[in-house]
Design goal:
With 427 residues, the chain is mostly helical. The chain contains 29 helices and no strands. It has a domain at 317-426.
């Protein structure tokens, strides 16, 4: 049998650090004597030893003092038989500590361990997932939200939990929830923060995006539009665009979403602010016919008196960037502030000015979808490698696994020759 059934014997790194920090475990006979009749502090200290004999830890699982049982619950050397007893302990802190431990251990079981220990470990999880204390269930949910080796019925139960702190992490992240599961959860009347996290879920499929949009919930639809990994059908995008005119909270995320259909871009340009139209133009610089349409739409709105006051106050991103560049204030801090304001048009113009590259080249480098293009552009623009990482993540939306990372001391990971060759290819 595997060691966890009878006791872990202190295999974890954390366990080894804790063991070194304490006194050496007493001999077996002395340990038995302490367990039987030792003082509270002696029993509690003994229960912290992860290499303590499993039968003594099992005995401690029924100790009259909750302080001792808490130490047993936290101890990764405790056998699962004892954990099963502790899962029903009357003391809330005991169950909370056990939830933290079990929640961390189970997702990391190997295939062999999972097969041989499944029923006993899952029994403990099942009990804790139904605990009366929300923070016990929430702890289990937080630890299992990305797990792939636990029964789906536990995940579904947690996803349907009435407490937001329990269900939200599972709804947002669990890979064990199918699209059908999510559709059922939304159809059950999902609302508030739970619906928002559903909209934020990575790689949301079209049917689920459609279901979120169908709720017309303002915060959730805004979160869906901001979720660049969500697949949203053209029909749904157009439906949102139609209703967005009267919902200001949707204007910015709608205008700043990539790959909008042309008719949606035209519709959005008919009601959003001048600053957002500016962003639409910047995001479509490589599509002259789109830019021309947008400028005509703005001119019509100005002529109709819709944007007169706003246009008077609003200065195009290119003008603002050039003024700061000529004043020597177009710094990394200014670019980060613009990113915080979602003023991506300003950042694009800043990179054009700082790099000296043509606008279409800069746009191509940003739109490569890979970290190398933005990294080379950042080097040419004279910004730090840490800023290059920020631009990859926030401007280029480069997936984490495809990002280029800083070398030692925040240095660029490419040689100057490699960067110049890459840039010349795009120029």
């Amino acid at each position: 049998m595997l060691s966890w059934v009878f006791g872990n014997a202190g295999k974890s790194k954390r366990g080894r650090r804790r063991a070194r920090a304490r006194k050496k475990k007493p001999p077996y006979e002395k340990a038995r004597a302490i367990a039987a009749s030792g003082k509270l502090d002696e029993r509690a200290e003994l229960a912290t030893h992860e290499d303590l004999e499993p039968e003594i830890l099992y005995f401690f699982a029924s100790d009259e003092a909750p302080e001792v049982r808490r130490e047993v619950a936290e101890n990764v050397g405790t056998p699962l038989q004892a954990d099963k007893i502790l899962a029903l302990d009357a003391d809330e802190e005991v169950r909370f500590e056990l939830a933290r431990k079990i929640g961390r251990l189970v997702p990391h079981l190997s295939a062999g361990e999972n097969e041989r220990l499944a029923q006993m470990a899952i029994d403990v999880l099942q009990i804790l997932a139904q605990d009366d204390l929300p923070r016990v269930r929430a702890t289990i949910a937080e630890e299992l939200k990305r797990a792939t080796n636990v029964p789906t019925d536990i995940i579904r139960k947690l996803a349907h939990d009435v407490e937001e702190i329990v269900s939200a992490p599972i709804i947002e992240y669990s890979p064990l929830l199918s699209d059908q599961d999510l559709l059922g959860i939304i159809a059950s009347g999902l609302a508030g923060a739970k619906l928002v996290v559903a909209a934020q879920r990575p790689k949301l499929a079209e049917p689920v995006s459609d279901a979120v949009a169908g709720t017309r919930d303002v915060a959730s639809v805004a979160a869906l539009l901001k979720n660049e990994t969500a697949s949203i059908s053209e029909k749904t995008i157009e439906m949102i665009a139609v209703e967005a005119e009267g919902v200001k909270e949707w204007h910015a995320p709608m205008a700043l979403r990539d790959n909008l259909p042309l008719r949606t871009i035209r519709r959005v340009a008919s009601f959003v602010s001048a600053a957002l139209v500016d962003s639409l133009i910047a995001r479509n610089e490589l599509k002259p016919e789109v830019v021309d349409d947008l400028r005509r739409a703005v001119r019509r709105r100005i002529d109709a008196g819709e944007l007169a006051e706003e246009v008077a106050e609003h200065r195009p991103a290119e003008d603002r960037a050039r003024e700061m560049y000529e004043a020597g204030t177009l710094t990394e801090e200014a670019m980060i502030e613009a990113l915080d304001e979602r003023d991506n048009a300003f950042v694009r113009h800043a990179l054009v000015l700082r790099s000296g590259l043509p606008t279409d080249t800069v746009q191509k480098l940003i739109n490569t979808g890979a970290g190398k293009g933005i990294t080379c552009l950042s080097w040419k623009a004279g910004v730090s490698m840490s800023m290059a990482e920020t631009l990859q993540r926030r401007l280029g939306r480069v997936p984490a696994r495809q990002m280029m990372r800083a070398a030692q001391d925040d240095e660029y990971p490419l040689t100057e020759g490699d960067i110049q060759w890459y840039l010349s290819f795009y120029e």
